[in-house]
Amino acid sequence: MARGRGEEHSNQWKQNTLAGDEKNGEGSRTFVFTNEGHTLGNALKTIIARYPEVDFCGYTIPHPTEQKLHFRIQSRRDRAIDILKRGLEDLEGLCDHTIVTFEKEMAEFNAMKVEN
Predict the structure, then answer these.
(1) Residue 73 belongs to domain with CATH number
(2) 20: which DSSP letter?
């Protein structure tokens, strides 16, 4: 799997302890992403919320003028940081698959145009 994009994202979030995180153990964390919005938040939430070990997954944009995304993961079984990393890797794989499929279909379409 390509690594560039996932590594880029891993540098854009920080594991801050926000209100309530310190009481809930390693399974519940709110991660703050800078310069990200609903595109990443919704895609990542959709993937992570389907994991059976996740009790809750959601995100908020605290204020429209701030470029921050608060991403919350709660799990009683696994560490939230591990779930986040897995989610980012799965999202990266989905994006890679989409690009490959799109490029293949475009090449086939362009070849058909040339033949006609």
Answers:
(1) 3.30.1360.10
(2) T
Measure CA 41 to chain center. Answer: 6
- For 20, the domain range is 4-115
- Contact (CB, 8 A) for 72 and 57: yes
Is the pLDDT reported for residue 17 higher than 60? no
Residue 16 clears pLDDT 60, i.e. is over it:
no
Report in angstroms the alpha-carbon separations of 27 from 76, 77, 81, 94: 6, 7, 8, 25
* C-alpha distances out from residue 89 to 47, 64, 85, 86, 93, Å: 10, 27, 6, 5, 6
Report the domain count for the chain: 1
